[in-house]
Design brief:
The structure is a single chain. The chain has no helix or strand. The protein is mostly loops and 39 residues long. It has one domain. The chain is extended.
């Protein structure tokens, strides 16, 4: 697998269908946005 590390104030996208684990080793503020492309 692949490991990625992010530090404040980083932001990142998780693609649809993501299958994996998420570990937050320090307190973190999370914002969620769901985007669906319409045709």
């Amino acid at each position: 697998g692949k490991t990625e590390e992010f530090c404040a104030p980083a932001s990142f996208l998780i693609p649809a269908g993501f299958n994996g684990t998420w570990e937050a080793v320090t307190p973190a503020r999370k914002f969620f946005v769901i985007y669906e492309k319409t045709v």
